[in-house]
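Exercise 7. Given the components listed, write out the predicted structure of the assembled complex. Treat all entries as one system.
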Amino acid sequence: MTPPSQPRTAPDAGRERDEIVAYYTERYREDLRLDRRPQARLERARTLQLLGELLPPPGASVLDVGGGTGAYARELVAAGYRVRVVDLVPAHVEQVRGGDPPIEAEVGDARALRFGDGEYDAALLLGPLYHLGERADRVAALREAVRVTRPGGRVAAAVISRFAGPLDLAATDRFDARVLAEARTLLTDGRNDPASGFTHAYFHRPEEILGECADAGLTGIALHGLEGPLWTAAEAAAGGPAADAVYAAALELARLYSTEPSLVAASGHLLATGLAP
Ligand SMILES: C[S@@+](CC[C@H](N)C(=O)[O-])C[C@H]1O[C@@H](n2cnc3c(N)ncnc32)[C@H](O)[C@@H]1O
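Answer.
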């Protein structure tokens, strides 16, 4: 673990890409992520509900940047949207192309999209931002999402809350002195310690993602807490007699408190949305 006195720095762009590709290709099954745990099921359920409310009607074109193995792309295609996935990890792109149904997908970097200005009705950025350690890179990715979206079209971008890791570990009985020290360090630098098992990553406070969205030119910005304030209770109850009841309550409260400013950062993930100018 990095002591608080030594500020952690992000790796350079090439190493950053290699680390992400290696993580998702060799160490992590992204295709299983959203079905695994109460946190992920809440994240998926609320993301789909919000996309249903925020996207233009089916038939619209959606660019899913950092679309992973296509979990949301498949739902959107099934609902009648025209979707293309861009992702940094070739193995993810292959899974999207080879899935059921096959979806158009290509390898690309959120910071430099090959598409024309206003080519899509909406753009999703549900993954790249927490993998980009530098603010300038995150704003560049948001600017690209804004650029390829038609004026007035929707952009939705997800980040991980600054507090998610320690809360998760505490709720699932993995809290110890190391986690407490890491929670202290995270308060000031927001950077994930790769010794945690995840890649280098950046974890946001609400005001940071709001500022990044504004700097990228989005208008009408709103911020949602995806899993709501009760997700850690759902994690703690998993496998026990109250699991279903607590999960159901957590989902209801996630919906009710979705944009409540004093609670959003208690969610594991934050979803920022806005319109291309
Ligand atoms: C945790 S997954 C999320 C996948 C999916 N969007 C979801 O929300 O379930 C993060 C994804 O972002 C992709 N990613 C990370 N940095 C990226 C970048 N700079 N450009 C494009 N994709 C990137 C990763 O390859 C990975 O597929």
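Discussion: Residues 1-5 have pLDDT under 50 and may be disordered. Residues 95 and 175 are 35 Å apart (CA to CA).
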